[in-house]
Amino acid sequence: MAERSTAAVDVADNSGDEPLAAKADEATTDGTAKAQDTTGNEPQDTDGERISSEATLPTPDLHSGHKLARRYRLEECVTRLDGFSSWRAVDEKLRRAVGVHLLPADHPRARSVLAAARSSALLGDPRFVQVLDAVEENDLVYVVHEWLPDATELTSLLAAGPMDAHDAYQLVSQISQAMAAAHREGLAHLRLTPGAVLRSSTGQYRIRGLAVNAALRGITADGPQRADTEAIGALLYAALTQRWPYETDAYGLSGLPKGVGLIAPDQVRAGVHRGLSELAMRALANDGATASRQEQPCTTPDELAKAVASMPRIRPPEPTFTAPPEYQRTTYQQGTYGRPPTSPGVTTQPVIAVPPAPLQSRTGKVLKWAVSALLIAALGLGSWQLAETLLDRGKDSGNDDTTQTTPENDDKKPPAPLKPLRIAGATEFMPSGSGIKQKDAPNTIDGNASTAWITLRYRGYANFGNLAPRRDGSGIVVDLGSVQEVKGIKVEMFRSGQKAEVLAADANASAPSSLSDFPQHLTKLATVGSDLKESLAKPVRTRYVLIHITELPSDGTSDGFRGGISEISVLG
User: Fold this and answer.
1) Phi, psi of 206 (to 5 degrees)
2) Which of 103, 147, 191, 448 could be bridged to 107 by S-S, CB 3.0 to 4.6 A?
3) How many CB atoms neighbour CB 418 within 10 A?
4) How many alpha carbons fall within 13 Å on the CB side of residue 359?
5) R_g of the chain computed on alpha carbons
6) 3-state secondary structure of 570
């Protein structure tokens, strides 16, 4: 029987992630091979590049309706290229659309594709299109990933014209931050084209094919960080100018004129934002370009993300409002009810409705003065009754010596708004002495919701794989630096569906490490959504607060579970 291996792996505590993606086989093709779609449509690569010539290796002979693992039903082939094919499919178990890459198990790049898919799946970053399964079964290797029907490829966005400064700023900011996070985990893309970038309906950019697209084509790089940085620079250049920053046409965009070299975007098109133009040149500096102010080139996605963050923020353009149409008088056709019909050939003229004239006669003036007098009389009567009521109340309070009015009863001031307390540090909750990802704990208090403390993937059981070291769950302990009055808590969870609670240590506690050290309950143990918020009726004095997670939500695979915490705020 063929061996089956999935991207959801058994994880023991503190054992680390799976090995990172290996380089594709050097002896295979460099990824420039072409193929022809057998569906009759113009063939297209998995990341949006058009394909025209024949494949160099035979692809698996499958058809629409074929099922993989009695679960994934193939619907439409979108790519046939160099021995592999890509499909839009349906996950009949979860009733959702998915994408599938297929290649024979004896394909020279099959092992590299499996390794890349498993490494990408372990990243678990929502800014990337997630790998859901990686399987070797029945002489086939296939990789299942998310399918986003409501997202739009950057290729289509650029075909409509260049982006404004705010949209281009959001593109380079989000893509550079995402790729910086991937490279910190040892993952590279190496195939970051306009077809690999998607924008959702909410304006968030997502990257598909991390590590997998390059492995499918056997693409490698001696400097993967530099290669991905240059690719981000090319995307920014195209967004600003609607031109590809090289002499060849690509991805539906015209290249630069031959023989002139790489010129700055603000010299290609008028009105380009100066800061973004220089940023694109800094990312493409290894191609011989230099920024106008001679800044240092950006050689890694992290350097590029920091350069974007140091720029003044670019605000969205003001919305434009069209003036309403001028008022048009309506006309009506005079009816014939009760009148003899007109003879043939006689046209009835429309009658224009004329509004009544304003009251300008003596009667109208008298009516206006009468209404004004009534209003003045009503106001005077009301003021007199109010004064009499207040005087009577004062007399009653003076005669009754036993009744005293206190500020608490009459002048209740609204409570002061809660403010975030200063957090001195954050550590991983390790009741068994062993952790999961201790180095990522500070991500929960860095003020950036795009960074997070994320658990490993656990198989089979939501309670951290039912592993003995995780019997008491896990979570994050925040240190306020000194004993404070805690009046509320606000936690942004990495993923909805986690079972969690918030606990506090006693005021005299020092370095609490077990559940018994946190006897005060700020919230009840319950399944929470994307946010965990609570305002306390009575403040709690403590220095240490624990966000305690006991069960994890599904990560989208058949039996995998994964969770985490993005940002923590303690209110006082």
Assistant:
1) -130, 145
2) 103
3) 17
4) 8
5) 34
6) strand
